[in-house]
Amino acid sequence: MEYNNLTKNKAPETAAVLESIPSWILRWGILIMTIIVAIVIISSIRLIHFQYNFSTNAHVESGSLVFSKTLNNDIDIEEIEYILIGNSKPLRINDLYISSNKKNIIIKTPSDYLDTLNVENTVKIEVFQKKSLLEIIVGDIN
After folding, report:
1. Are residues 64 and 31 in the same domain?
2. pLDDT at 3 over 70
């Protein structure tokens, strides 16, 4: 496309501005801005992590909370920051012992929570973990 054809159908003010700027600057400027925007979007999707909470019900068995791994496949044990049991204060992951097998995730709670847990058979818990935007949108890639 010839450069004069680009400015022929424009308003006189727009044509004057387009004629004063060399076309190679416009092309390279658009290309560089596109690359910068793509890098920002890709890095924000992969590198920036958001706090993601997940609510589920857990069964109380001898002072431990047990919930199904198959029903709660969004929970990644390594990325858990803290857990909220019922209406209590948040428990940091360092205060808990978490183990898992093929079917269940088992959380052993501190002794001061045993009184609350012995009253009910099922407790609502909220798991707070860090996930990247890609993991939140797409799910687990592995």
Report:
1. no
2. no
